[in-house]
Design a protein that fits this description.
Helix content is 18%, strand content 27%. The protein has six helices and 17 strands. By secondary structure, the chain is an alpha/beta fold. The chain starts with 29 loop residues before the first strand and ends with a strand. Strands 2-1-17-16-14-3-12-13-15 form a nine-stranded mixed sheet. Helix 5 (306-315) crosses helix 6 (317-329). The protein has helices at residues 141-148, 189-197, 236-247, 257-265, 306-315, 317-329, and strands at 30-34, 41-45, 58-62, 64-66, 70-75, 81-89, 94-100, 110-113, 118-125, 131-137, 174-177, 201-207, 230-234, 252-255, 276-280, 295-299, 340-343. The protein folds into two domains: 6-66 and 163-343, 3-Layer(aba) Sandwich (QueA-like); 70-148, Thrombin, subunit H (Beta Barrel).
């Protein structure tokens, strides 16, 4: 059994390898291919992913869409500038949120956005410091949010995004995420068409990515870490495609850790994926036995992150960290707008 210490998932990354801007051509990212059985590494272009997929395989993609979840406003009583970050929808006009600065936004505080077309009142302060906020507006909330909100970028990206759509996958469909499922950013509609033409099935699932994705692990024994919950849904059609693939001897390859966590959350002990809608707080780390997943397309993840632990569960911690060292030597681009890995 591998050690499960937080410090074992650390690595040194030169700051200049953190990608600040997306490439113009999504498919021109680099692709590091890692054989999870023997640790062999190949260096390819992302568009070459096609040659690693076989007829009869199933590619699982997360079709969530990032919402402009960051709202900057002023506190009505004082005019102080405050930020409200939408985390989870609790009702038509009710949201669980993250607020800054917290001391200024106690229960009953009201915040005004724009010219007052949107206002918010703090209804409840939760144990973890998050706030339940009720919004007041005219018309459709999504349209108001689209005008007043900003698409949040991860804290390690300091450049401003010129095109909002570049932080969305080309198949993004259902609003709800605070962050993009970034492994999917490398695909174009043309590449997906070529993949289907080769006889690979595409199964779309939904998991709304929460800010907890960036929450650091603080306990040295990683098994003590508590994951955030995220809302997901797998339709009957999506589940059937995955189950048929496995029954026919094909491989189920997930695009991103969010797709992986979704299907593993919805699978029974035999590996059969059940159509369902719910919340998951699944934490996958070495020692986990994958019930459905055969392979994974993913980006390079932050040191000591739960995402790096998930990838290590699939390919082994030492092999993964060795591949990361190789990627650093080869000057791969890291994190959300960076290059990709295929673990197969």
């Amino acid at each position: 059994m591998e050690k499960l210490l937080l410090s074992d998932y650390d690595y040194d990354l030169p700051k200049e390898l953190i990608a600040q801007d997306p490439l113009t051509d999504r498919t021109s990212s680099r692709l590091l291919v890692l054989d999870k059985e023997d640790g062999k590494i190949e260096h390819r272009s992302f568009r070459d992913v096609l040659s690693y997929l076989n007829a009869g395989d199933c590619l699982v993609l997360n079709n969530t869409r990032v919402i402009p979840a960051r709202l900057l406003g002023v506190k009505e009583e004082t005019g102080a500038v405050v930020e409200i970050f939408l985390l989870k929808r609790l009702g038509t006009d009710l949201w669980e949120t993250l607020v800054r600065p917290g001391k200024k936004l106690r229960k009953g505080a009201r915040v005004r956005f724009g010219d007052g077309e949107l206002t918010a009142e703090i209804e409840e302060v939760l144990e973890d410091g998050n706030r339940v906020v009720r919004f007041f507006f005219s018309g459709i909330f999504e349209e108001v949010l689209d005008r007043l909100g900003e698409v949040p970028l991860p804290p390690y990206i300091t450049h401003k995004l010129a095109d909002r759509e570049r932080y969305q996958t080309v198949y993004a469909k259902f609003d709800g995420s605070a962050a993009a499922p970034t492994a999917g950013l490398h695909f174009t509609k043309e590449l997906l068409s070529k993949i289907e033409e080769k006889g690979v099935r595409l199964s779309y699932v939904t998991l709304h990515v929460g800010l907890g994705t960036f929450r650091p692990v603080k306990c040295e024994d990683i098994t003590e870490h508590k994951m955030h919950t995220e809302v997901y849904e797998i339709t009957e059609d999506a589940a059937e495609l995955i189950n048929q693939t496995r029954a026919n001897g094909g491989r189920v390859i997930c695009v991103g850790t969010t797709s992986c966590r979704t299907i593993e959350s919805a699978a029974d002990e035999t590996g059969r994926v059940v159509p369902k809608k719910g919340e998951t707080d699944i934490f996958i780390y070495p020692g986990y036995r994958f019930k459905v997943l055969s392979g994974l397309i993913t980006n390079f993840h932050l040191p000591e992150s739960t995402l790096l632990m998930l990838v290590s569960a699939l390919a082994g911690r030492e092999q993964v960290l060795s591949a990361y060292k190789e990627a650093i030597r080869e000057r791969y681009r890291f994190f959300s707008f960076g290059d990709a890995m295929l673990i197969i």
